[in-house]
Amino acid sequence: MFNVTRIVHLVRGSDPDDFETRTRTTVDAIGTAVTVVGRTLPGTINGGDLIAHLQFADRDEWLRVRPGVDELLASPSVEKMYGVEYYGGTTGRASGADPGTLYRTLLVRVDPSATTGSLEHFERDILSMPRHISSMRAWRLSPVEASTGPVSWTHVWEQEFREVGDVTGQYLDHPVHWAVVDRWFDPECPEVVVRDRVCHTFCAVDRAVIGG
């Protein structure tokens, strides 16, 4: 599947309910395989006001409907937007796990000067997390094919969880996070490969998003 994600930051004073309704109307008319339109929840970092995530059979299907989405996001209500487009990468789901009710996505930009060995090690460490974090119901790490907005993102790391506390609690506080993964993000560590500020954001969902 070809995935499209837009993280929307609204102009202060705009009506988020109205923009969410307009976004839902626009994407519902497209009729994608999986659609997420959700207001972001407290605890995000650089996470915007709204997440829109769409899945298509291929890139051509997305390109046919993209003008309508782009027109919506050119609204005066939008201050800025982070956008990524990508084919699904390494994906997994916990055995017997029901779909999560919270969708979380992390956009990162790896330094282009990072060595191939460092990049592969970074990705292995990210993908080791589900073995240790029991609240993670599904996950996917993907390279970005195209990025729009002020940051050229390189990777998307997505998960499904049961609730916000699973993200802000077990996930972020877990030893595998701060002892293994954080070194790739910490500018004081020699292994650092992520140089720019990340986009860490999440919203409620009512369906499986990853592998759905």
From TrEMBL:
The Stress-response A/B barrel domain, residue ranges: 102-197
Gene3D superfamilies xref list: 3.30.70.100
Domain of life: Bacteria
Pfam families associated with the record: Dabb (PF07876)
Name under which the protein is recorded: Dabb family protein
Organism taxonomic ancestry: Bacteria, Bacillati, Actinomycetota, Actinomycetes, Mycobacteriales
